[in-house]
Amino acid sequence: MLADQPSGYHRSVPDPSALRAAPERAMRTSLLWLSRRRSVGRLATRLPITRSMVARFVAGETLDETIAALRRLQAAGFRTTVDVLGEAVTSVDAARLAADEYLATLDALAGHGLDRNVSLKLSQMGLRLDPVVCHDNVARIFTRAAEVDAFVRIDMEESTTTDATLGLWRELRPVNAGRGDSGVVIQAALRRSSDDVDALIAERARIRLCKGAYVEPSSVAFPDKGDVDAAYATLMERLLRTGTFPGIATHDEHLIARAVALTREASIAPDRFEFQMLYGVRRDLQERLVRAGFGVRVYVPFGTQWYPYFMRRLAERPANVAFVLRNILREGRDRPPKPSGPTG
What we know:
By secondary structure, the chain is an alpha/beta fold. The chain is 51% helix and 12% strand.
């Protein structure tokens, strides 16, 4: 009893939410530390078990390897978008080289008759180093996209870059408007996203809607998964009804079922939107949606920078570790073994 405690004694009551969050913080710290350890990265790239695990989620280290994976996806009825791995570059030269890789990728997609669609991150283009350099790099990519009639999606990163990302897209959008076009990404986890979606719908922007995996303060993002899911469902329904060819980017079967039900109830044709999923994640679900007549675009990353990319993706949301393992097991139960899948 508190009344029995000596005068001046204050009993400390642990915060249950803080206790629950402690293991996740520890895992995130460890994963981020590992992502910066070059020696660990060199070892990881040599270990067969590591490379085989990453190979499921990364199409390859070279463009040639990726072209082969894209051909298999195309033959299986999938649409694709290509991401050249590498973000948060540390030099202006590295940012320019990354832009050059995107130019080569666009040329290769056009030359091989593949889906001319790429996704890029502004941190890879030099946003944190020099906004002018970033602008010039993205402008070069948009210009080449216009020449080959390719679509460019600017990915969304931390909330601190949301305004800069939307601003740069609005400035460069006219470069390939009507000649491939471009779009942005909105994260349902951010509290501001409802207003952003309203504005972008009015601009007839092509939006990819994702939940958002970045760790953000509760002042700018919903901290609870249930709130994020509810926000996603609300924004998804708004985009399906009034958006311009939205990309519904989720592996959540409940949200996908909700989207399918809405399209049937509201007579929304499959050619007015598409589902988008990550390379190697829930391939069984991807195939079922294609068989049901829906468009599915697979996000296909490639490049030599897979180790830091993979570790940072896990660090952004440590629950992704369990998510990856759970989906591998689920796919194994739901789908009979095959010599090779359409996503390689």
